[in-house]
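A further point concerns the way the authors explain their paired sequence and structure data. Nothing conveys this as quickly as seeing an actual entry. An entry of this sort, consisting of the sequence and the corresponding backbone structure tokens, reads as follows:
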Amino acid sequence: MAPSTKKRRSIQKGRAYIQASFNNTIITITDESGGVLAWSSAGANGFKGAKKATPYAAQVAAENVATKAKLYGMEALDVFMKGVGTGREQALRGLIANGFDIDSIHDTTPIPHNGCRQKKPRRV
């Protein structure tokens, strides 16, 4: 029996979701309908503890996910950034350095419009 060779589909345009928290940076590349093609994070690239939150770790994660997405023939991305971590800008630079055309950048960080009541202040 011949080994199964799965044909990779060719996708030129997609979306990149960058989720930058204070502890880690997660980058996911999807097709235009939202199906995940590749993902990477600072923790998945061998960074542990406080080093996961550094801009360098975010750049390494972006370069890793870019090489995975290039296998699909990806060329252009719409970038959706979320969070306030230090890896936001550096992850975007990592994607640009790997030859992606960035069509648009959206900031989807949730901002409260005075919805829920906050916890009472802690007395020490």
In short: Residues 55-70 form the longest helix (16 residues). Residues 13-107 form a domain with the Nucleotidyltransferase; domain 5 fold (CATH 3.30.420.80). The radius of gyration is 17 Å.
